Amino acid sequence: FGSSAALAAANLYIGCRRRSRRGMFGTCCCVAEKSTTVTVGRSPATDESSQAKEVEEKADATLDGTLKGDEGVFAAVLSSNSAGQWLGMIVEQFASEALFIAKVDDDDATVVGQYNARSLPGRKLSAGDYIISIDGLTGDAAIERLSNTARVEIVAKRPKPYNITVRKNSLPLGLVLKYDKLGSSLYIKAVEEGGAMMAANVDVEAGDRVIAVNGKTGSPPILMDELKSSDVLDLRISRP
């Protein structure tokens, strides 16, 4: 994250929006399109983090009625205490409806690290969580708000992971995938007719993510290699 030279180029600084675009194309079993993964810098803080718990309780009370019934949904307040403070998470943005937290840096020098340190276990932000909205915004507008505002209220949601098994049987896998090398998942853009996934009649749909293949996790190239090299695929799927 902010302290890593390898990831420094992917960070957004206040007033300077830079994005890492490192999409790659798959070969035999699926197609990967260009995508965006970002880490975000922060501006000077405007309120004290000690107030955050009270604010989060108030934010919970204002959750949209459709979200209140989901025990995996919670509000969180992130606030920066210094100019240029690292956010402390990598966010994958492939769809307007939700952002995916690919990685979290719990270092107490980061915004997310400080938030997690003061929050109860059930409210900590973790890799694999989804961000439904930021100050009521989604998509590019949410990323813009996150990178240019000292204090934001986010609505986060725990993932709903499950496992499926697919045999390719000489068929193409039949998934259109989007990913970024800095991420940790493969975003399913579409399930195509005539592929092994459709033939297996499993519960997979556009918007889901592949987070493990045959027990392997890690960067998208690792997941892609396993998808291409194995005929029998045990997939761990994440759904918002």
Structural summary, described in words:
This protein has about 240 residues and is an alpha+beta fold. The chain is built from 6 helices and 13 strands. The chain has helices at about 50-60, 65-70, 110-120, 140-150, 195-200, 220-230; strands at about 10, 30-35, 35-40, 75-80, 85-95, 100-105, 130-135, 150-155, 160-165, 175-180, 185-190, 210-215, 230-240. The protein has a 7-stranded mixed sheet. Strands 2-10-11-12-13-9 form a 6-stranded mixed sheet. The radius of gyration is 18 Å and the shape is elongated. The model is unreliable at about 1-50 (pLDDT under 50).
Q: Compute the number of helices.
A: 6
Tell me roughly what share of residues is in helical segments. Answer: 10-25%
How can the largest sheet be summarized? 7 strands, mixed
Describe the strand arrangement of the main beta sheet, using strand numbers.
1-3-5-6-7-8-4
Morphology: elongated
Distance between the termini: 24 Å
> How confident overall, as mean pLDDT?
77
How much of the residues is beta strand, in percent?
Answer: 25-35%
**SS-derived structural category:** alpha+beta
Quick tags:
240 residues; alpha+beta; 6-stranded mixed β-sheet; 6 helices
What's the short version?
The chain is of the alpha+beta class. Helices cover 20% and strands 30% of the residues.
How do the strands and helices of this protein lay out in sequence?
Layout: E1 11-12, E2 30-33, E3 36-41, H1 52-61, H2 65-68, E4 73-79, E5 86-93, E6 99-104, H3 111-118, E7 130-134, H4 139-148, E8 151-157, E9 162-167, E10 175-178, E11 186-191, H5 196-200, E12 209-213, H6 220-229, E13 232-238
Parallel strand pairs: 1-3, 2-10
Antiparallel strand pairs: 3-5, 4-8, 5-6, 6-7, 7-8, 9-13, 10-11, 11-12, 12-13
